[in-house]
Amino acid sequence: MLPGRLFLVGGVMLSCCTASSLDSALSWSMRLQRRETARSLEQLKSVGGHQCLRDRTQFLCPWRKGPITQVKLEEATSCYSQMLRQLLQLFDIEASRAAWPERALDQLLSSLWSELQVLKRAGEQGQSCPPPFALGIRTYFLGFFCYLKAKAHSPCSWEIVRVQVQVDLSAFPLSARRSPKERRSSMLESLLS
After folding, report:
1. Where are the domains of the chain?
2. Helix (H) or strand (E) holding 98
3. Using one digit for the tens of pLDDT, what is the confidence trace for 70-118?
4. pLDDT, average across residues 122-130
5. If you write DSSP's letter for every residue of 71-134 in order, what string do you get?
6. What's the pTM value of the predicted model, to 2 decimals?
7. Which of 35, 63, 151, 156 could serve as 52's disulfide partner, Cβ 3.0–4.6 Å?
8. 50-79 burial, b for 16+ CB within 10 Å, e for fewer?
9. Do 121 and 30 contact (CB within 8 A), yes or no?
10. CA-to-CA distance for 191 and 60, rounded, in angstroms?
């Protein structure tokens, strides 16, 4: 009986190693894509920030302030794909095409799309976003659309939005995956109990 159990435990450990290496690769890919998106947002900069000080406004970022900051990281991670889709909508409008150099904007849109694909491969995209967080994200991006419309999509209004998105995107709470050691020990405990 003991050799059979050891064989079973060995098989579980081997599958753990494979799963953790895939998990680790997706996590690494996600971090790489986030950096690429941040770099693409930085490359959009077309107006000096000091020229746009009078156009500043207060956008209420749902994952920085209010009750949404109390949402569990796993729930926030499930909302990341929704946030990326909102970013795609924001930067893929005609007024955006007029505001930014075409190559830099296409690079940003491509980076956002790639992030969505990484989430899809990781299985994060299909999870549901908690309603308060989903509403907070939609309201946050609606604020950008209203602000840009009120400012007639001026270069400074786009620069204010770009900076705000860049700062808030980097602060979006994404949960870290469990380490391979934690995953193995939990699987072994469930197998042996």
Report:
1. 2-192
2. helix 94-99
3. 556 666 667 888 889 999 999 999 998 888 889 999 999 999 999 888 8
4. 67
5. S-HHHHHHHHHHHHHHHHHHHTSHHHHHHS-HHHHHHHHHHHHHHHHHHHHHT-TTSPPPHHHH
6. 0.71
7. 156
8. eebeebeeebebbbeeeebeebeeebbbbb
9. no
10. 46
